Amino acid sequence: MSRKFFSATVLATLLGLSSLAGGFAYAQGRTASPTPQVTLSASQALLAAEQHLPNSKAVEVELDREDGRIVYEVKLLSGQSRHKVLVDAASGKVLSVGEKTADARDADKVKDLLVTPAQAATTAEQLYPGGKAVEVELEHKRDQRYYEVKVLTSQQQKHEVKVDAMTGKVLSAEKKR
């Protein structure tokens, strides 16, 4: 994304600074959020985007900054279209929807998937109590499709979890530096 503001490192730093200012705890809406601007989980952002575009299938979500707001950028596919939906990370409101023509490779990405990105995010969050998924990306390598989920914990630790897109099983989980 050309206007990408956060990398996982910058986001972790921001969360660390906000914790010094007032403390925080991550949990899917059950406790305080890392900053006043992030109250939504990745799963909730995915749901908001899919409800806004019925008959579409989400393939990715990422916490980002757009025009001074912290948002989730959700990428979806429907028919011959590829959509980018921005969801406000505080309110859950859909801020904008962009559309492009999808190509055949896009349709192949989601063909016959049994696990949704929201399910993969929930699976990854369950491995790290108090953690919050901030990015979910569908990957396809060596005839295997899986979601790569980035989770941030309340201790400011970054974890990457790979979840099989067909079975929902965790393929790997590792702490990132």
Q: What is this entry, summarized?
A:
The protein has 177 residues and is an alpha+beta fold.
Walk me through the structure:
The protein is of the alpha+beta class and 177 residues long. The protein has one domain (8-176): Nuclear Transport Factor 2, Chain: A (Roll), CATH 3.10.450. 25% of the residues lie in helices and 39% in strands. The chain contains four helices and eight strands, in the order H-H-E-E-E-E-H-H-E-E-E-E. It has helices spanning 8-22, 42-52, 104-110, 117-127; strands at 57-66, 69-78, 81-88, 94-101, 132-141, 144-152, 158-164, 170-176. The chain has an eight-stranded antiparallel β-sheet with strand order 4-3-2-1-5-6-7-8. A hairpin with a 2-residue loop joins strand 2 (69-78) and strand 3. It is globular, with a radius of gyration of 16 Å. Residues 1-35 have low confidence and may be disordered.
Descriptors:
single chain, 177 residues, alpha+beta, Nuclear Transport Factor 2, Chain: A, eight-stranded antiparallel β-sheet, 4 helices, globular, disordered N terminus
